[in-house]
Amino acid sequence: MLTFNKIITDYLTRDEDNTVHVQWCPGHTDVKGNERADEEAKEGALLWQPRFVTLTHAMRRSKAQFLQKWTDAWRRTPPTGGFGVANRFPLAWKPKEHVTSTPREVFGRLTQCRTRHAFIGEYYAKFVPAESVECPCGTNYQTRQHIIMECQRYDAHRHILTEDFPGLDLTKLLGTKKGLETFVKFLAKSGAFTKTGTPRGAPARPLLEDEEEDDEEESWWERIERQGNGSGDEGEGGGGEEDEEEEEDGGRGGT
Fold it and tell me: How is the chain split into domains, by residue range?
């Protein structure tokens, strides 16, 4: 309709003598031209036409096909390595809910724990040999399983896990939606899998070396205080001797 209107407008503006006559046309009945148009339209509808696909639709189909192939390959591959027990979620283009809803610092520890690339002895043994593989609780070899199931440092917070998962099954804890929700709470409260083993911002547990440093600092301040008091006494004593000498001189002058 817009094209028709533009054509008519251009035609009328080219010459003031140009005119257009518009006449109402009745329905198709008994109008040879309209009847012929209907027949042509029906025949044209039966002809083969190249299939038209939008770019958006083509991209959506391509993504769906690629995701299906990716998922099939994932299902055929047995889960192995440190991430094996946690690699249970079907593949998707968008991030899972636990990715978007978990605080960044806690999510970092969650990922480290699920992949077993964390501040733990079994990781140090492979990648950071200069670090000790022992657990601060005294266990000779610190593992992910030890921290979650056995480490005495987290006994006070382990009930968060056992309330929903009494057996502490790592496959369920690290590979299911409910398990991750529970495990995130445990990480946030306990500080597990941080470098210090304590929540971010919380004071670290005092060590014997810290107590020795405190004793040394306290004795240092006491020594400084004693030296200050000693200097004051000497000053007072010196002043007294000078006063006695002045009195003796005064007595001699009077004589």
Answer: 102-190
